Amino acid sequence: MLENILYYFVLFGFGLTIGSFVNCLVWRTYNNISVAAGRSRCVHCGRFLSWYENVPVFSYIFLKGKCRMCQKPIPAHYPAVELFGGLIFLAVGWFNKNYSVFSEWHLVRDLVFVSILAIVFLYDLLYQIILTKLILFGSVVGVVFNIFIFHQDVYKMLIGVAIGSGFFLLQYLISRGRWIGGGDIRLGLMMGVWLGWPNILAALFFAYMLGLIVSIPLLIFKNKQWDSTIPFGTFLAAGTFWALYCSDSAIEWYLGLLG
Ligand SMILES: [Zn+2]
Predict the structure, then answer these.
(1) Which of 83, 97, 192, 239 yields a CA-CA distance of 20 to 30 A from 68?
(2) How far is the CA of 53 from the centre of ligand 1 (A)?
């Protein structure tokens, strides 16, 4: 019991910290500042933040959402991403404890995976860009874990990669780059490495369903077009998370319907 509480407490705290790091990395990368550039600053006045202004979630509440010096609002997505980080780490911890195939190494892999997904999710949502270096890093990490540590089937991974990247490459060629960008093709490749066959299908399906549900009101009421201004990487990141844990039972359910 105590062990369980400690396990989830540590994961939650770790997730809050990673959420804070994701905010920092996204902001600094977009503004061409080195991620290792020392202490955090206010995004408005540039003042260095004290340690007590830098505690995930709590500082935002304590400072009532404003910079102590310039009184300008701290962007609301900061505490949201931190809290989201904590909750998603709790979810990963729960899945790893309750599925017998999982091990400590699965927990490490999945925490790395969801941290990368959180960056993809936020960056594409804020700036409509999928970072190439991040995707390459994620793909290499995926090969190391899935092939060298877990000895998964190489052919299933290759089929996953062919479907993940081929699906977007095809759309890219048909639309001459109007519907999606090159970033989606690379993200599809990373998803293929992580998920393999047949889970890649579940991730794509879930991402498109989510994309439709969210985008239809935008298309109708805001007169948007279905093109690269819709942050599709955000939906793909959500679909990948879903497929990591839930696709086995969903595929079984679907095959059950057919048979
Ligand atoms: Zn300030």
Answers:
(1) 83
(2) 11
Residue with tokens 């052919």: 155
- 159's enclosing H/E stretch is helix 154-175
pLDDT at 47: 87
Q: Taking a C-beta distance cutoff of 8 angstroms, is the pair 208, 152 a contact?
A: no
Instruction: Tell me how far apart the alpha carbons of residues 234 and 118 are, in angstroms, rounded to a whole number.
Output: 9
Stronger pLDDT, 97 or 164, i.e. the higher one: 164
Q: How many whole angstroms from 49 Cα to the centroid of ligand 1?
A: 9
Q: b/e for 1-37, b at 16 or more Cβ within 10 A?
A: eeeeeebeeebbebbbbbbbbbbbbbbebeeeeeeee
Quote the pTM value: 0.88
Report every protein residue that has its C-beta within 5 angstroms of ion ligand 1.
42, 44-45, 67, 69-70
Q: For residues 157 and 33, what is the distance between their CA atoms, to the nearest angstrom? A: 35
